[in-house]
Design a protein that fits this description.
By secondary structure, this protein is an alpha/beta fold. The protein is about 35% helix and about 25% strand. It has helices at about 45-55, 75-85, 100-110, 120-135, 150-160, 180-195, 205-210; strands spanning about 1-10, 20-30, 35-40, 60-65, 70, 85-90, 170, 200-205, 215-220, 225. The strands form 2 sheets. It has a 6-stranded mixed sheet, sandwiched between helices. The chain binds adenosine-5'-triphosphate. GO terms for molecular function: ATP binding.
Length: about 230
């Protein structure tokens, strides 16, 4: 489903010095693998890797293939790929504070809308409500985003990411703000999405989250290595 080959990315720090973040990194899902946990020290590049997989960061060398097709580094093609295939839970949630919870999740549903085709607003609202129920936030539809706790905001971000039923779900520390019970509920939801055929890449520092993934990889020295 997802394959990265020889991915190299070089950064420049504030002083203009070069730093090789990814150095010929390879990543491939075996047929039986639905979820991959990416572990690694702070600053090793986990979020950057997810941004590349999402088609948000296009400045790298190497090959990225998803669903048998090379993902273009041309911005509009990458945006189309993202719109059609990817749901992403970012580390800082990136919710829009001027919209209520329902409208934030609706952004995830309607982003898949094909340009020129009318959006079925009623069906979109029903889907957004369903996703809020799935993350345990039924009843929060009208809440303002800036009144939410960290864990509630994180679950809104998860609801938005899964709302369009994407083939690839990318999640950056998706349970970092959740208590143990809520984390377990979200991990069960992720397991269900995988049983339904979705693929996930999860960046995490949590051993619990990593153990719920099929494969665990450590990002170190600019490459991914297998860990138990
Ligand atoms: N646009 C950029 N320009 C320069 N450096 C960057 C840029 N984006 C990220 N970095 C640097 O790249 C490194 C990797 O960052 P990234 O956020 O991917 O790490 P991470 O493994 O997700 O860290 P954490 O576990 O703390 O979230 C960091 O040292 C960061 O400062």
């Amino acid at each position: 489903m997802i394959r990265l080959e020889g991915m190299t990315k070089v950064l420049r720090d504030r002083n203009g010095a070069q730093r090789v973040l990814f150095d010929g990194l390879d990543l491939a899902f075996r047929d039986d693998v639905r979820s991959v946990a990416v572990l690694g020290r702070s600053g090793s590049g986990k979020s950057t890797l997810l941004r590349i997989l999402a088609g948000l960061d296009l400045r790298y060398d190497g090959t990225y293939v998803a669903d048998g097709r090379q993902v273009s580094r041309q911005p509009s093609a990458a945006a189309r790929f993202r719109r059609e295939k990817v749901g992403i839970v970012t580390q800082h949630y990136d919710l829009l504070e001027d919209r209520n919870v329902l409208r934030n999740v609706l952004l995830g549903v309607e982003v898949r809308g094909v340009p020129g085709r009318r959006v079925d607003r009623k069906a979109s609202v029903a889907r957004a409500r369903e996703c809020l129920e799935l993350v345990g936030l039924g009843g929060f539809e009208r809440s303002r985003v800036n009144t939410l706790s960290g864990g509630e905001a994180q679950r809104v971000a998860i609801a938005r990411a899964i709302a369009k039923d994407p083939e690839i779900i990318l999640a950056d520390e998706p349970t970092g703000a959740l208590d143990e019970g809520t984390e377990e509920d979200i991990l069960q939801l992720f397991a269900r999405l995988q049983r339904d055929g979705r693929h996930m890449v999860v960046a995490t520092h949590s051993e619990t989250v990593a153990q719920h993934c099929d494969v665990r990889l450590l990002l170190t020295g600019g490459r991914l290595v297998s860990v138990e």
